[in-house]
Design a protein that fits this description.
By secondary structure, the protein is of the alpha/beta class. The protein folds into two domains: 138 residues, Rossmann fold (3-Layer(aba) Sandwich); 197 residues, Dihydrodipicolinate Reductase, domain 2 (2-Layer Sandwich). The chain is built from 14 helices and 15 strands. The strands form two sheets. It has a nine-stranded mixed beta sheet with strand order 14-13-12-11-7-10-9-8-15. α1 packs parallel to α2, α1 packs parallel to α3 and α2 packs across α12. It comes from Runella aurantiaca. One of its GO terms (molecular function) is nucleotide binding. InterPro entries: Gfo/Idh/MocA-like_OxRdtase_N, Gfo/Idh/MocA_oxidrdct_glycsds, GFO_IDH_MocA-like_dom, NAD(P)-bd_dom_sf, TAT_signal. This is Gfo/Idh/MocA family oxidoreductase.
Amino acid sequence: MNTSRRDVLKLAGAALASTAFPSIIVPNRAFAGINSDTLKVGLIGCGGRGSGAAMQALKADSNVVLHALGDIFPERFDTCLEGLRKVHGDKVKVDNERKFVGFDAYQKVIDSGVDVVLLATPPFFRPLHLEAAINAGKHIFCEKPVAVDAPGIRKVMELAKVAKEKNLSLVSGFCWRFHEPKRAVFGKINDGSIGEVMSIYNTYYTGGAWNFPRQTGWSDMEFQLRNWMYYTWLAGDHIVEQAVHSIDMMSWAMGDVLPVSAVGTGGRQVRVDPLFGHIFDHFAITYDYPNGAKGFHFSRQQENTERSYLVETFGTKGRAMANCSRPTHKIEGQNPWEYSGVQNDMYQTEHNELFASIRNSKPINNGEWMANSTMIAIMGRMAAYTGKKITWEDAMKSTEKLGPDSVNFETPIPKIEVARPGFTPFI
């Protein structure tokens, strides 16, 4: 993912530079219980990702305010609000009594009178927070991934149906689906420009990630929460938390047809210090599809290695390229083509379309495909961790629940060992 998404100060500059706004239409007051022309936003998770989402939400509509914040670490509030106020000024209307701290902060934000919630906590919490927001009738921006295990995915799929029944917008943080060059190239793939898709090669090769050394007074739980990316129960491993973007585009190229099975490998080759939890630092997964097509996924988080972030799709009539590192979106073969249109800010487009859907009473629901894309990544992790062939049916029926039923700073940390292919069981 673009690191600027994690840096609220850089986002502030980007927000000032961009000028794209959706058309504003007077809302239908009967739509999903909204009774005011001013849309109130609540942010749940005030780190860099959440701060960026709030930045874009406030820009997406001329009559929207930030109403409430929630996080388990209160020191994040000041950094978040400083960046937002530099750009949005009096659109930031968060009084001290609407800065909610603790593991129940999400519910307090939802109950504070907001119309839209932005969910940007570690992925483990996503099904719980989605459930609370949908039950309360709120529109939602939901960061990816949407869960870390199959029970969580099954829950999200149920919730997506409820959101549809309630006419709620549920917009996903799978940002490339909102990128105009990607929409163009994958649209052509889905329309048959390269014929029948037979193989897809996708990568997410990157360097390391941030970490926070342990401080005096931190419990084991607090240490893991502050370094959540390195714990499978919180993040799903980097194939689920980060490289899922490439897997989502692979699924997009297949028209969101689900894979039949997956086999693969992975391991912890470079990043072996206990500081980095128990996740792998590389994966290689092969997915089999119903028509005989294969998807080849490769990802790693290793310093001083070659970077690559792309999707190449091979069909019976040609080859399509979508490169996330360079502005390359083209088709070679019987129907050659190269994208030459706008290069939009996909993060902003996510929110523009979310708020326009609320104003126009035409809810967007990304629930099914965002859950499926997350599950394809989880399925790949299962294959790598166990060393076994994992079918989609078996993956979806998995009863493995990675985290505890409830969490506080004194909750005993889940006992998860580094996976060993051939020894780690499929559950």
